C-alpha cells in the first residue's frame, strides 16, 4: 500500500453524529496522503462541524443543499461517477436508514444512489442506538447491498456512557479506505 495517492478522488460525506467534529481531521489526513477530497455535508452534519473548516482542510467548496438559492446546478450524477470511493464518516443512524431505504432528500443521499464506486460507511452513535434492531437491520441491508461497513469502536462515548458506538480513529478509517481502494483497483 502506498502513502501517496494522487489522482484518486474521494467523495467524503459528513452526517449529523456528534463525531462529525472529527471529520476535518480525517479529511486532512486524506489530503496529506495526496487524495483529492470533495466533502458533502448534510444538514445534520452542519450542526456539528462547519463548511468553512471542511472547505479549508479539503481545498474544495463543500457541497450541502440540493436546493441552491443562487440557482446553481450541481451535477451530482457526474460527481458520483467520477469518484473512486464514497466514504461517509461519521454515518448517523438517520443516514443509515436513508441509504438502506433509498431515500434521497439530501445531496449526500442522492450521490449515494448515483455512485457506482465502492461505498464505505463508518457509523457513530450512542451504544443503545447502535444496538437497536432497526439500526442493525439497516446496517445488514447496506452490507447486503455491497456497502463496506466499518463498525464503530468501543470505548468512552459523548453521552458519558461506555460501549460500542465511537467513530474509529483516523488511522483505522484511512487504512480501511485504502484497503477497499486497493481491492477495487485489483478487481478492475
Ligand atoms: C447533541 C446531539 C448529538 C447527536 N449525536 C448523534 C450521533 O452521535 N449519532 C447519530 O446517529 N445521531 C446523533 N444525533 C441525531 C442526529 O443529529 C439526527 O438524527 C439528524 O437528523 C441526523 O442528520 P443527517 O441525516 O442530516 O445527518 C444527535 C443529535 C444531537 C442533538
How would you characterize this protein structure?
This protein has 188 residues and is α/β, with parallel strands linked by helices. It has a single domain (9-187), classed as 3-Layer(aba) Sandwich (Rossmann fold), CATH 3.40.50.1950. Helix content is 41%, strand content 19%. It has 8 helices and 7 strands. The protein has helices spanning 23-32, 51-58, 76-82, 93-101, 107-114, 127-131, 133-144, 170-187; strands at residues 9-14, 36-41, 85-91, 119-123, 148-149, 153-156, 162-166. The strands form 2 sheets. Strands 2-1-3-4-5 form a 5-stranded parallel beta sheet, with helices on both faces. The chain has a two-stranded antiparallel ribbon with strand order 6-7. Helix 3 (76-82) packs across helix 5 (107-114). The longest helix is centred in the C-terminal third of the chain and has 18 residues, at 170-187. The model has no long low-confidence stretch (mean pLDDT 93). It binds flavin mononucleotide. Flavin mononucleotide binds next to helix 4.
Features:
binds flavin mononucleotide; 188 residues; 8 helices; Rossmann fold; five-stranded parallel sheet; globular; two-stranded antiparallel ribbon; alpha/beta
Instruction: Tell me the fraction of residues in β-strands, as a range.
Output: 15-25%
Count the domains. Answer: 1
* Distinct ligands: flavin mononucleotide
Helix/strand order:
EHEHHEHHEHHEEEH
Distance between the termini: 17 Å
CATH fold name: Rossmann fold
Tertiary shape: globular
CATH superfamily: Flavin prenyltransferase-like
Global mean pLDDT: 93
CATH top level assignment: Alpha Beta
**Class from secondary-structure proportions:** alpha/beta
Amino acid at each position: 500500500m502506498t502513502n501517496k495517492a494522487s489522482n484518486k478522488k474521494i467523495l467524503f460525506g459528513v452526517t449529523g453524529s456528534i463525531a462529525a467534529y472529527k471529520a476535518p481531521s480525517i479529511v486532512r489526513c486524506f489530503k496529506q496522503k495526496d487524495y483529492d477530497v470533495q466533502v458533502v455535508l448534510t444538514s445534520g452534519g452542519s450542526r456539528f462541524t462547519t463548511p468553512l473548516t471542511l472547505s479549508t482542510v479539503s481545498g474544495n467548496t463543500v457541497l450541502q443543499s440540493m436546493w441552491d438559492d443562487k440557482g446553481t446546478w450541481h451535477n451530482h450524477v457526474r460527481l458520483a461517477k467520477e469518484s473512486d470511493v464514497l466514504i461517509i464518516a461519521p454515518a448517523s443512524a438517520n443516514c443509515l436508514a436513508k441509504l438502506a431505504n433509498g431515500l434521497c432528500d439530501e445531496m449526500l443521499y442522492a450521490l449515494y444512489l448515483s455512485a457506482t464506486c465502492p461505498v464505505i460507511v463508518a457509523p457513530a452513535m450512542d451504544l443503545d442506538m447502535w444496538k437497536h434492531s432497526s439500526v442493525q437491520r439497516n446496517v445488514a441491508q447496506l452490507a447486503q447491498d455491497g456497502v463496506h461497513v466499518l463498525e464503530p469502536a468501543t470505548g468512552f462515548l459523548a453521552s458519558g456512557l461506555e460501549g460500542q458506538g465511537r467513530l474509529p480513529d483516523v488511522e483505522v478509517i484511512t487504512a480501511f479506505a485504502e484497503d477497499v481502494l486497493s481491492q477495487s483497483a485489483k478487481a478492475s
